[in-house]
Amino acid sequence: MYINRSKTIVIKIGSSLLINDKGVIRKKWLSEFGKDIKELIDQKKNIIIVSSGAIALGCKKLNLNKKNLKLDKSQAVASIGQIELMNLFKKNLSSKKINLSQILITLEDTEKRRRAINAKRTFENLFSLGFVPIVNENDSTATSEIKYGDNDRLASRVAQISGADCLILLSDVDGLYSKNPRLNKNVKLIKEIKNIDSNIEKIATKSTGQYGTGGMKTKIDAAKICQFSGCYMCIANGLNLRPIKEIIKKNFCTWFLPRLSKLDARKKWIISSISPKGELIIDQGAISALKKGKSLLAAGVKKVNGKFSKGDHIKILDKNMKEYARGLSSFTSEEISKIQGQHSNKISELLGYISKSEVIHKDDMVIL
Hints:
368 residues, Carbamate kinase, Archaeosine Trna-guanine Transglycosylase, Chain: A, domain 4, eight-stranded mixed sheet, five-stranded mixed sheet
């Protein structure tokens, strides 16, 4: 069982597990869930909880309907609900002698390398102090353009940054079925997935509950991040009391197996970016060079799409517009537009100043 062999485990809790469709808090469930966490801690495992529910609890306190909330008001409601969320966890988990901390993360905290490293160190220090971090997106300040919008992908990035061995997504579904179980009776639960192909993508639906913001699609997106981070990921039904114990005992869930066993921390971060800032279309000669472990040079760049700065995540596409690699740009998009297709020894002349010769250095690039 992948959980038993894992040292660091991230557990994501969906809003529907904390609050039922009638707006009633599931106190019994949370108390039993605390027993699962205590058992894992007693086994010397590091635990991170990524929990939805701030806006839902805020709506409950203010007697508001979440569907009618505009962004600016939802940020205020999230601020109110976040205290309710932490109080809920503290009341139910502290009684089991589980020490809790709170971490609010934004999209930029995971996309910016320096912030990501700082977050990793925070997690490590909390583990050494014997605390369980409870993570949520900072909905009070994030705008729609710079936020995850769902905690499935946030949880996968937290798993990647913290170097977790396993991510468990607890929601109101058993896992990924061969067809939508709400519309079809003859369905089969897919137990393990090694490759997320077009068939898996088609199965994913966008159905959401009253309080949740994610569907199966966001869980598949999270799985992709985990697979390239060397992390196992599980989609399981969390409505059962003692959901983690249930997974270990019955294994009635869907596991996504890692595609990569090892990538250094820098390349893990590059491959897991969910918001590349631009694209470079390169020729076949450049593709051949990259296959040999070379850096991407200006001579192989045919076209630049998007506007980006030095150090930004960008996609590298072949002539058929298929993504071949990802990397960190050594130049701005404007600079690359000036030097594309040119030999490296002409870069200084074209830009008017001395610069690097590689558009993307091999150490800053991951081939997909």
